[in-house]
UniProtKB/TrEMBL annotation:
Membership in a protein family: Belongs to the metallo-dependent hydrolases superfamily. ATZ/TRZ family.
Name of this protein: Amidohydrolase
Nucleus in keyword set: no
Species of the source: Aureimonas flava
Keywords tagged on the record: Hydrolase
Domain of life: Bacteria
Length: 491
């Protein structure tokens, strides 16, 4: 399959930061050539697109989301993480393979429609990780034609042990059961991920990482096994780290130097580590992350929605730390649209520096959303830049849309004005997965009808899980009040 997109305005990413007019040739899933705009491409092309009124950018890399939440979108109230999760998680338990697949497909459609071509799916299968449900997720991305790194969540501590609860927080309430539920042994969980990785080893679009839910939710043995898995498979260990004040307190309980000192002492902080959020870093943590060459995944919208805290993005970038951007899940953002995340990443941190020269620039946000994310999740040699030899993962936007008229600065307008409505064509691996604004691989009306039916049924059938989870509401509220009123945590 040979596709020619002629004379199009390109933001290539990487070292080439200025817009250029080029003619792109895709062949065998790759960008075969980037030619001068007026180059005559004599050879036969299977498809030709006139690019004169299009803007080409590398497909965005959503470096952190959780596909199960797509099927409970809109169900979680406005609450901080620890209370929010009692609602969000209960609805995504006991899924069938088809529910898992439909949930991932919903996210894939939303992402492709808004220009994202690669996703890191930190998928939690609950109550216990199961190989066939992981396969169903991978099948969804294969079906949608989207590039995915799937990092199955592993965790082996009961919920009650993962929160900085004191006995007084319980106020005599009985919360056992759901909150004290045992997990599969760590070794068994890693074996399931090993078998999943073996089944998908040669897939052109889907690859497998591992996703410890968070250091406070795993035993040291599991964290070490996950790092060992990542090293052997040359992939990433993707985990939530220091998202909230309560997690910072858990870090302090695990190690006097805090959570990252704990990971470092275990020998599991490395260039394979994805530190998702990193909002509550302790003294010396930035230097530690830089020294170990770990990557941080910044999720600005989710952090604000859940009032989790703020990632010190400008400082991380000044320290040379690798950073990607993520939307986080459809219950805490509540969108999978990376263009929103790009904008938030670009403007959220402006109040941190008086000197505007130190603000995050739109071009920086774009770089993080493309090559930054690809590099962080282990696909830096494949995706994130428009260069010959890279995968033909490309988003083409219509310049005859309100976001780009009049055209002054394509980067600034892409990051600050565009919301997804201008996305016209999207290619993944050289294949058009969105053509003239229509998904080519998914029958959207029938997917949406099935999703509604499955979601209604699951919410009804999981009422006992919602009720069991809600018993933790009181203790968590008391815990939060205690943490907020104490000076235990250095902000
Ligand atoms: Zn998350």
């Amino acid at each position: 399959m040979r596709t020619v997109i002629s004379n199009t305005l390109c933001l290539r990413g990487g070292q080439a930061s200025a817009p250029e007019r080029l003619t792109m040739v895709f062949e065998k899933g790759q960008i075969a050539a980037l030619l001068p705009a007026d180059a005559v491409v004599p050879d036969q092309a299977d498809e030709r697109i006139d690019g004169r009124r299009l803007l080409a950018v590398p497909g965005f890399v959503n470096a952190h989301t959780h596909s199960p939440y797509n099927l409970v979108r809109g169900s979680a109230p406005m609450l901080p993480l620890e209370l929010w999760s009692l609602h969000a998680s209960a609805g995504s338990e006991r899924r069938t393979a088809r529910e898992v697949e439909v949930s991932a497909l919903l996210g894939a459609v939303e992402m492709l429609r808004t220009g994202t071509t690669t996703v890191l799916d930190h998928i939690r299968i609950a109550p216990d990780i199961e190989g066939d449900l992981l396969d169903a997720t991978a099948e969804a991305y294969r079906h949608a034609g989207m590039r995915a790194v799937i990092a199955p969540v592993v965790a082996d501590k009961p919920l009650l042990e993962t929160l900085p609860l004191d006995s007084a927080d319980f106020g005599g309430e009985e919360v056992a059961g759901y909150a004290a539920r045992p997990t599969l042994p760590a070794r068994r969980q890693v074996e399931i991920v090993e078998a999943f990785a073996a089944r998908w080893r040669d897939d052109p679009l889907v690859s497998v990482g591992i996703g410890p839910s968070g250091p406070q939710r795993c035993t040291p043995e599991l964290l070490v096994m996950a790092e060992d898995f990542a090293r052997r498979h040359e992939t990433i260990a993707h985990m939530h780290v220091l998202e909230t004040r309560a997690q910072a307190e858990m870090g302090r309980r695990l190690h006097p130097g805090g959570m990252l000192a704990y990971l470092d002492d275990l020998g599991v902080l490395s260039s394979r580590s994805n530190l998702v959020h990193a909002n509550w870093l302790a003294k010396g943590d930035v230097e530690r992350i830089a020294q170990r060459d770990a990557a941080v995944i910044h999720n600005p919208v989710s952090n604000v929605r859940l009032a989790s805290g703020r990632c010190p993005l400008p400082r991380l970038l000044r320290s040379g730390i690798r950073v990607g951007l993520g939307t986080d899940g459809a219950c805490c953002n509540d969108s999978g649209n990376m263009l929103e995340t790009l904008k938030w990443a670009a403007i959220l941190h402006n109040d941190e520096a008086e000197d505007p020269a130190r603000w995050i620039q739109p071009g920086t946000a774009l770089r993080l959303a493309c090559e930054g994310g690809a590099d962080a999740i282990g696909l830096g040699k494949v995706a994130g830049r428009l260069d010959a030899g890279m995968a033909a993962d490309v988003c083409l936007l219509d310049l005859d849309t309100t976001a780009f008229v009049p055209l002054s600065d394509p980067v600034r307008q892409l990051v600050l004005s565009e919301t997804g409505g201008a996305v016209r064509h999207v290619f993944v691996d050289g294949r058009a997965v969105l053509r003239d604004g229509r998904c080519t691989s998914v029958d959207e009306p029938s997917l949406f009808a099935e999703a509604q039916e499955l979601s209604d049924r699951r919410r009804r059938d999981n009422q006992d899980v919602y009720a069991a989870a809600s018993r933790l509401d009181g203790p968590i509220r008391r815990m939060r009040r205690r943490l907020l009123s104490s000076c235990e945590i250095a902000a």
